[in-house]
Write a structure and sequence with these properties.
The complex is a heterodimer of chains A (275) and B (173).
Chain A: H1 3-36, H2 47-62, H3 69-72, H4 74-83, H5 88-112, H6 128-139, H7 146-160, H8 164-176, H9 184-203, H10 233-252, H11 259-264, H12 266-272
Chain B: E1 2-3, E2 6-7, H1 12-31, H2 33-37, H3 39-74, E3 76-77, E4 91-102, E5 110-115, E6 118-123, E7 137-148, E8 151-163
The chains are: A mainly alpha (275), B alpha+beta (173).
Amino acid sequence: MSNDNSRDITVLNPWLEYLVPLLSFGGALVGIFFWVTTASVDYRISILGCVLASWVLAYLAWMRPKKDIVALSTPVYSFIFLAVPTDNFSAVVLEVLYAVSLTILLIRLKYRFGAQVVKVPDKKELVDPVKIYVEKIHETGLFPHPGIAHTAAVVFVRFAEGEFFDAARAAKSSIAEQNDAVGPELCLKRAFEIVREQSNLLDQSLPAPETFLTFSADDAPMLAQVPDPKFGKSEEYDTALENALLILFAVAWNVESDRPHLLQCQAFAQRLLGQ
Amino acid sequence: MRIGNVDVKVSIIAIAVFVFFTIILLVSSVYSPEVRSQLIWLIPVLFMLLVIPMALNYMSRKEYADMEPQYEAVAKTVRVKLINESMIGKPVRIEGVVERVNFRFLNRPQYIIADRSGSISVKMFTSPNEDVKVNDIVEVLGQVIHRYLVTGDPCVNCISIKKIKKPAKDSKS
């Protein structure tokens, strides 16, 4: 799915939210109309409005990072509701009550289960926050040797998998190849060094040391998050690692063959970007 | 109740069920001679309502206690923000503040643990050794899992949760 389609989802979702009360109360109104006019149709046709509204609500619940099991299970209830034979009056009353319930669940979903996220639908392309950052790094003219870019991918993926020892080892091998790095490439080398240092510490479950590697002020244009001067040691330590990992991800994106692996870890990159 | 090294805890639900059926049995045995004649097996069955949850709790807690040293040996201490989908199945150790506790009454507590980098859901499928409350600073040992077995955001399947004394500045307040 293209990034443009991802944007469409965010535009579409508010409309889907309106659809829940529209379909459920619309169905209930149709049912009331049939009942009042004593139309010679099966009133339960109008229940389809509630069934569709349940599916829309379940979809909206599915799109959120925190899943609401009640909203997710509403299609099941709607089918039970549809399948159980009731007289016309009961069907209309049930429909109204069900429409009210779905609307309450929608409000609960919105306020208790947070904002929906644009998911990485098929893991085929980068999504916006990550894509913007990758483009930003490319604009700085940082296109290292494919071998180094591949190692960046290895380091990032191994780190994301929690294989800190492997990440540190791969980073070490790459640092040795970048002895004459200058400009943006020096920043990349520093990113490898930071990841190596912190991976070693994570592998041994050691706390942040008193002194640790950070980026220099010259590297600021390449960083996803410029450290705030008010940061304490802990925040500075964490931010250095997050920036370093994101630089490695952006650089690794240059190598086409590594992209499927990077896409698998894209959610981690998004998380590092604070998404 | 303590059996061996395991402190067995019965959930309030199991106790409520036991009390409910005890009252039903008492009332019905007063009014019905038929029920009175069946008391010889009804009373043991009634106690099974307590014994079975206790046995299950004992077995699960013993299993967790046996697993704890293995996790202690291999789990890496990570910040919450570093836990991601690619780490599913990995043993981890996190330290943070308890922001919320749910389902304690079911002996299946779920905690929201936060450190300075973020917060994560920690699920425990048995009762913890310690009574962990909101604002306690804890060390959690567990495995990264999907929230709904095969899907959902990553969370931690807790093997052990212990209160630790650390300066408040190390954790998100």
